[in-house]
């Protein structure tokens, strides 16, 4: 198995890393990742915080099939909520 790779505009190899998870415990619902994603992969959802017995908005992956693996969402996240994965081909 090999990893899916592409090329940069300058011709260098590039390995996409696709958004895999967002940790709702860390997410503060700031929406930075949502604004950064050009592929409409992310969306808000309600999260029940059992520690504080309250509900708050967090970001989640709603359309993973649209992800191109740019990792821009993770760059914008101030709480390091994202994990990423490569793709085998
Ligand atoms: S890796 Fe890129 S395309 Fe995928 S969710 Fe993050 S910003 Fe969107
Ligand atoms: S940037 Fe990080 S903290 Fe802000 S909504 Fe996205 S996942 Fe949550």
Sum up the structure in keywords.
89 residues; mainly beta; Alpha-Beta Plaits; two-stranded antiparallel sheet; binds iron/sulfur cluster
Describe what this molecule looks like in 3D.
The protein has 89 residues and is mostly beta strands. It has a single domain (14-85), classed as Alpha-Beta Plaits, CATH 3.30.70. 11% of the residues lie in helices and 33% in strands. The chain contains two helices and six strands. It has helices at residues 32-36, 72-76, and strands spanning 6-7, 13-14, 18-22, 42-49, 54-61, 82-85. A two-stranded antiparallel ribbon has the order 1-2. Strands 3-6 form a two-stranded antiparallel sheet. A hairpin with a 5-residue loop joins strand 1 and strand 2. The longest helix has 5 residues, at 32-36. The chain is elongated, with a radius of gyration of 15 Å. It starts with 5 loop residues before the first strand and ends with a strand. The mean pLDDT is 97. It binds iron/sulfur cluster (2 copies).
What would a concise description of this structure say?
The protein has 89 residues and is mainly beta.
């Amino acid at each position: 198995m090999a990893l899916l790779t592409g090329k940069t505009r300058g011709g260098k190899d590039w390995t996409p890393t696709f958004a895999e998870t967002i940790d709702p415990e860390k997410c503060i619902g700031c929406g930075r990742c949502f604004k950064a994603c050009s592929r409409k992969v992310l969306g808000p959802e309600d999260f029940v915080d059992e520690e504080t017995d309250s509900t708050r908005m967090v970001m989640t992956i709603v359309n993973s099939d649209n992800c191109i693996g740019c990792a821009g969402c993770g760059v914008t996240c101030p709480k390091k909520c994202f994990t990423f994965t490569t793709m085998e081909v």
